[in-house]
């Protein structure tokens, strides 16, 4: 048998064995972080490089570690310097530390449906429901589902499948990403009964449409646009007198009126005015994890909870934990960003510019933030930003720790409103690095 070429034999002896590489403490730590398959694949790639002679055998561990992804998910944490408080593409509300901790704790095994005192099965997520009813005593019952759209679908299905849902033509909204309210309702098996016109709907329009076949009246907050001029819409208080349940989709999850957002409907007012149930999202102004809330009359909420569809829409333990911690816990980051003091924002911008090398052209400029997430359109949040050359935006976005800025009128605006102050140093480092890349 011919023996292999001496050089080939040498190289093969030089390639460290997979088991040897995996036994390195740093590689072992990577295995527990990322899983064995991911690390093995990286080891294989590096071994091939040694075989090809482009890497020395003593460089293997370093190369394996350098070739590994930073985390077990491809989702990359991003610093939100857009000034858009509820940024849908960035996952809407960032969670409070209390919510994050509650969710991490719930990720193991938890008593989500168990009464530890009796050892018996208990109502799922009772803690989050109790928290909601404590902060909103106007509601007799509460239910948590996957998102705002699910809450709306469940309400219309349970109250009006096979019957009519009366909706104003001024409230036939598209939520976003092509999802439209009329289609959503049609998917539930309820028939849409449109009343009024785009700009004006009166209580008489509703009254003449309501009849024995009406399942409910649906009032939807047209949260992502505004109609101005010759307009009329009907308050919940006037709809509540028409003899059928009123479902009010308030959208953002504001629990009580807030002076900063005078046009935003809130759950407490809607219930006080007589809505049977209010539906909303958990991850907009409520500031919690993605969830849909149904809040309202105990009997109506129970009807929804008992509907078979509710099982298909139920929220998981991690969400329930995060929601409860958001409702009971410290003020969520969404509200810190919404209520940010403009003077403080300006001081943070000044500090950011001071941390940059001279001659970058960075300037502190007035810049309005927005609520975002399809909420409070046309309501600016006065503040400040650091203006940089436009191509900085792409450089910032492609850093290891990406920063998303706002591009406006040929400038890249870095707005500190939604950046936790604890990240100001990281933000300055990122801007310095991005400017450096542009040369
Ligand atoms: C955002 C919104 C929804 C959809 O809620 P999701 O949580 O995104 O499913 C429905 N209605 C209104 C008025 C909204 O603003």
TrEMBL record:
In its UniProt entry, what is this protein called? L-seryl-tRNA(Sec) selenium transferase
The UniProt record lists the L-seryl-tRNA selenium transferase N-terminal domain at 12-51
- The top EC class, named as a word, is transferase
Matching PANTHER family, A to Z?
L-SERYL-TRNA(SEC) SELENIUM TRANSFERASE (PTHR32328:SF0)
Q: What reaction does this catalyse?
A: L-seryl-tRNA(Sec) + selenophosphate + H(+) = L-selenocysteinyl-tRNA(Sec) + phosphate
Pathway where this protein functions? Aminoacyl-tRNA biosynthesis; selenocysteinyl-tRNA(Sec) biosynthesis; selenocysteinyl-tRNA(Sec) from L-seryl-tRNA(Sec) (bacterial route): step 1/1
Q: Which residue windows are coiled coil?
A: none
Q: Which UniProt keywords apply?
A: Cytoplasm, Protein biosynthesis, Pyridoxal phosphate, Selenium, Transferase
């Amino acid at each position: 048998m011919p023996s292999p070429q001496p050089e080939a034999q040498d190289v093969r002896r030089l390639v460290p064995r997979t088991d040897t590489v995996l036994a390195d403490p740093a590689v072992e730590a990577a295995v527990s972080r990322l899983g064995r398959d991911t690390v093995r694949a990286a080891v294989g790639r590096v071994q091939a490089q040694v075989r090809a002679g482009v890497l020395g055998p003593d460089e293997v561990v370093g190369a394996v570690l350098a070739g590994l992804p930073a985390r077990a998910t491809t989702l990359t944490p991003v610093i939100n310097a857009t000034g858009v408080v509820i940024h849908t593409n960035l996952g809407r509300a960032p969670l409070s530390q209390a919510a994050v901790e509650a969710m991490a704790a719930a990720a193991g095994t938890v008593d989500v449906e168990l009464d530890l005192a009796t050892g018996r099965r208990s109502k799922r997520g009772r803690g989050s429901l109790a928290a909601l009813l404590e902060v909103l005593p106007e509601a007799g019952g509460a239910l948590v589902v996957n998102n705002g759209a699910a809450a709306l679908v469940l309400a219309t299905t349970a109250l009006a499948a096979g019957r009519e849902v009366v909706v104003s033509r001024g409230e036939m909204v598209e939520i976003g990403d092509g999802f439209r309210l009329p289609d959503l309702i049609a998917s539930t098996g309820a028939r849409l009964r449109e009343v009024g016109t785009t700009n004006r709907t009166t209580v008489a329009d509703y009254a003449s449409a309501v009849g024995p076949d009406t399942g409910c009246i649906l009032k939807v907050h047209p949260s992502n646009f505004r109609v101005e001029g010759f307009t009329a819409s009907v308050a919940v208080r006037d709809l509540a007198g028409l003899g059928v349940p009123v479902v009010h989709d308030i959208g953002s999850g504001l629990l009580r009126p807030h002076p900063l957002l005078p046009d935003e409907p809130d759950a407490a007012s809607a219930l006080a005015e007589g809505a049977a149930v209010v539906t909303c999202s958990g991850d907009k102004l409520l500031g919690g994890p993605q969830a849909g809330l149904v809040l309202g009359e105990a009997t109506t909420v129970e009807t929804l909870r008992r509907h078979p569809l509710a099982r298909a829409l139920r929220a998981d333990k991690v969400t329930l934990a995060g929601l409860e911690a958001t409702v009971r816990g410290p003020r969520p980051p969404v509200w810190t960003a919404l209520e940010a003091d403009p003077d403080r924002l300006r001081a943070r911008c000044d500090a950011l510019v001071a941390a940059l090398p001279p001659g970058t052209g960075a300037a502190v400029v007035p810049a309005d933030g927005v609520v975002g997430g399809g909420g409070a359109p046309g309501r600016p949040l006065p503040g400040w930003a650091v203006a940089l050359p436009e191509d900085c935006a792409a450089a910032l976005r492609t850093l290891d720790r990406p920063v998303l800025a706002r591009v406006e009128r040929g400038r890249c605006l870095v707005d500190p409103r939604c950046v936790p102050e604890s990240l100001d140093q990281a933000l300055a480092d990122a801007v310095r690095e991005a400017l450096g890349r542009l040369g």
